[in-house]
Amino acid sequence: MASVTQFTPDEERSLGEKNTLPRMLSIPFAGLGMGLNGFLLGGFVAWNQSTPWMVAALTAFTASMMFCWTSALHEAAHQTLFKSRGLSIWCGRFLGTMMFTPYTAYREVHIRHHAYLNTPRDWELWPYSDPNASLGFRRAFVWFDLLCGVASGPIIYGRIFFHRDSPIKSAATRREIRNEYIAIAAVWGAIWTYVALTHQWTAHILVVLLPMYVAAFMQTFRKFTEHLGMSSFDPLQGTRTVLPRKWLLRLSSFLNFDIFIHGPHHRHPRLTHTTLEAKLNEYQRENPEVNYPAYERYWKAMFAMFPSMIFNPGCGVNAGNTDHLQATSEAEDFASDVVPSGGKKAVMRSAS
Questions:
Q1: How far is the C-alpha of 342 from the C-alpha of 347, rounded, in Å?
Q2: Looking at the whole model, is its pTM more than 0.85?
Q3: Does residue 290 sit in helix, strand or coil?
Q4: Is residue 2 within 8 Å of 89, Cβ to Cβ?
Q5: Count of CB atoms within 10 A of residue 118's CB?
Q6: Strand, coil or helix: what is 332?
Q7: In this predicted structure, what is the pLDDT of residue 327?
Q8: Where are the domains of the chain?
Q9: How many Å is the maximal CA-CA distance in the chain?
Q10: CB-neighbour burial class of residue 348 (10 A; exposed 0-12, middle 13-18, buried 19+)
Q11: Residue 292, class by beta-carbon neighbours within 10 Å (0-12 exposed, 13-18 middle, 19+ buried)?
Q12: pLDDT value at residue 173
């Protein structure tokens, strides 16, 4: 049985009040995009001069919807996707299988990402948060991570299962991850066997694998925008938040479960996505003297991240934090309110 997030009564109530289904439209929309592209490439309609443009447009549309799948998997890992924990878990397993990533491994990594943000124990931000990773290695890996995200993602999340220093000691948890790896191999083995037998590799690459590649690129870039260059161990100070204001960003934020409002999410991992903007407004109202790293334009957050990505891909200690890390017990679940892992708070960055 998969580990279960323990919510307070108020969190349970908030979970039951939200409406998830409209935000899940990315799943059927991606299927629709793949289906229409397969229809065009399958020769069911006459090929003309506009067909390549239609294929390209459908590929871009499918990729943008697959990008939203990563946020749905994220919500499933928190078990805030649906009121039913079991439904969240099985939806997470389906999405993880589609992304070559075991749901349970993703969840275990993500629990530690919240508990130990930007510290060496943050498995999700490896190697950027690892002081043992050299600058040369991080400079090389950041481009592999960005340009080969469809492979780097499963590698990063899989480390917690395969690494000799894995914090996962539970035999049951390791068995779940093993079984999810078996399911991934079985599902994709069946898909690729069918593709090989029917000689449809070209269509499969264009309809399925290319959108997956682009979606992984987008997801990695989002991760960089939120985290690279952030030194603080404090959740509100150690992540970049983007507040959606224009309609396109609002739509993208809606389909991505408001994950762009990242600081409040890191501070309150069990808070439903529908309340994140209100929580940030609350912090800003109660602390008017604090310049939180919050941006109203995504490109501004991106430009704030670029120097780190190019010159010093790092977080926490690798981004200049010298705070003393306090020894804490191993996290096994998401906390209701995450306090900084370090000693004194790092200086906050101003944002506009």
A1: 13
A2: yes
A3: coil
A4: yes
A5: 32
A6: coil
A7: 65
A8: 26-319
A9: 67
A10: middle
A11: buried
A12: 96
Nearest Cα residue to 142 out of 154, 150, 152, 155? 152
CB 323 within 8 A of CB 342: yes
Question: What is the structure's pLDDT at 216?
Answer: 98
Whole-Å CA distances, 236 to 178, 222, 266: 35, 17, 7
Identify the segments of the chain with pLDDT beneath 50.
Answer: 342-352
- Is residue 108 within 8 A of residue 166, CB to CB? The reply is no
Helix (H/G/I), strand (E/B), else coil: 89 = helix
Is 59:37 a contact under the CB 8 Å cutoff?
Answer: yes
Q: Which amino acid is at 274?
A: T
Measure the N-to-C terminal CA separation of the chain; round to a whole number of Å: 45
**Whole-number Å distance between alpha carbons of 34 and 297:** 31
Report which residue type is found at 309: M
| Token digits of residue 313 | 């891909």
For strand 294-295 and strand 241-242, is the pairing parallel, antiparallel, or unpaired?
parallel
State the amino acid at position 76 in one-letter form: A
Residue at token pair 């995200």: 149
Pairwise CA distance, residues 269 & 50, whole Å = 46
Two structure tokens written together for 74: 């994220």
What pLDDT sits at residue 117? 95
Q: Which residue has the tokens 């409040």?
A: 264
